[in-house]
Give the backbone structure.
Amino acid sequence: MSEPTIFDKILAKEIPSEAVYEDEHVYAFRDISPQAPVHVLVIPRKRMQSFADLQHADPSVVASFMQGVSKAAAKLGLEEGGYRVVFNTGSDALQTVPYIHAHILGGRKLGWPPG
Ligand code: 5GP
């Protein structure tokens, strides 16, 4: 894989982040530029570039990643009010970090459709 991304460095604790949930499969931390009262990123410990890679991944890796996203949202107390999970994938979706990440957004009424 190419150069370490900012999220590789966050996972390696070379760059500080505010963790909100972690387990053996995923790491969840607050976005540095929040777009909602709650804005958290969830990454798998094993790097993939984007959501497009999930089709080739071991289903158990996909399952533990998705379960981690759901667990992080629950830990953030978002289940009652609801929340959105976003995977920006590739250039049209404005993905800026080439390390797959789920955005969890919540804590307010979110608009639809997104931009
Ligand atoms: P993307 O556009 O790739 O889906 O989202 C990347 C996200 O990473 C953005 O929401 C951006 O604010 C966040 N981000 C970029 N650099 C950092 C950082 O150093 N720390 C944290 N916590 N978030 C970051």
Notes: The mean pLDDT is 97.
